[in-house]
Each structure stands twice: as structure tokens, then as C-alpha cells.
Amino acid sequence: MMRFHHMGVFVSDIDEALRLWIDVLGFTLTHRGFIPDGRRGQSGTRMPAETLDDIFGVEGARSEMALLTSSDGAMIELQCPLVPKIERTPPQNLRYRHTGIHELGFQVEDIDGWFERIRAAGYETQTNYVWPWAINGKSFLFYDQDGNLIQFCEQKGTSSWRP
After folding, report:
1. Can you tell me the distance from the alpha carbon of 66 to that of 132, in angstroms, rounded to the nearest whole number?
2. Contact, 20 vs 121, CB < 8 A?
3. How many CB atoms lie within 10 A of CB 22?
4. Among 108, 107, 89, 109, CA closest to 149
5. pTM score, two decimals?
6. Mode of pairing for the β-strands spanning 75-83 and 103-107
7. For the chain, which terminus, N or C, has the lower number of CB atoms within 10 Å?
8. What pLDDT digit, counting tens, does each position of 36-91 carry?
9. Backbone phi and psi for residue 53, each to the nearest 5 degrees, phi listed first
10. Cα(101)–Cα(157) distance, rounded to whole angstroms?
11. Beta strand pairing status for 28-35 and 62-69?
């Protein structure tokens, strides 16, 4: 058995990212802290220093993180690496031009309301309108402050996206 657990989103300013995820999108903050959370060689921690060094590929790795949960149980992990210092994705690298995970999609109701809410909060949308797709579907894409692409989809008459 396998099921989706969470999506990690790397950000350059965790407070700015939390404003989007909590104030605009309605997620709940369930944990916030720094990793590693223990000293070298210390066991029984969430993330030992040696492990984070291996994952990030540098000695002395350190990151601020936050875990957020939606009302439906979707979990987002925000990571703001301090060592090594993270860099925002340059605008020329956005829009499906490079490999990697570039889009985080959510199914929503009242997509027109979400579109207005996202634009009113100051986030850039890829189009100035909600566009139709598939049968009875609507969608729009927007960027968070770091260039992470988020898609909202609404499909009338079905509970899930179907191509």
C-alpha cells in the first residue's frame, strides 16, 4: 500500500510563506522549529545533525521548518534552509522550462472566489483569468513568493480530476 504523505516546499522567507499558507489558503500550523534539533551524535531527536548534513550535502546544515495541515488532512512541509543559504528561483527558470516538481495542485470549490482571493493577496497568476479545461472544469495557476507554482482546479459533477 502507498498513499500520499506530504509535499515539501522550499522557501526563502518562512514568515512570508506562512502568510500565504495560513492566512490565504487556510492551512493550520502544526509544528515549527529548526533542524537539526539535536547535537552531533545525539540520538532520539527528530533530525540528527549528521543526517541533515547528508541530506543537504554540506557540513553544518541547518533549516527552519514548518508543517501545515489542511482541513482535509493534506500536509505541506515548508523548509527554509539557512545553511546552505537558499536562493529564489530566477524568473527565467519558471514556467516548465526545467526538470523537477514545478506544480502543486489542489482541487477546490468556488474557483472564481479563490482566484480573486489569491490576486487580492498580491500573488502573481499566470493568466488574468480562470480558464476552462476538460469537461466542466476550470483552473488557474499562481506563484508563491519564491516562484513555486500552485494550481487550483475545480471540476463540477465529480469529486476528483480525470483526464
Report:
1. 34
2. yes
3. 14
4. 89
5. 0.80
6. unpaired
7. N
8. 876 655 555 567 788 888 888 999 999 999 999 999 999 999 999 999 999 888 88
9. -60, -45
10. 29
11. antiparallel
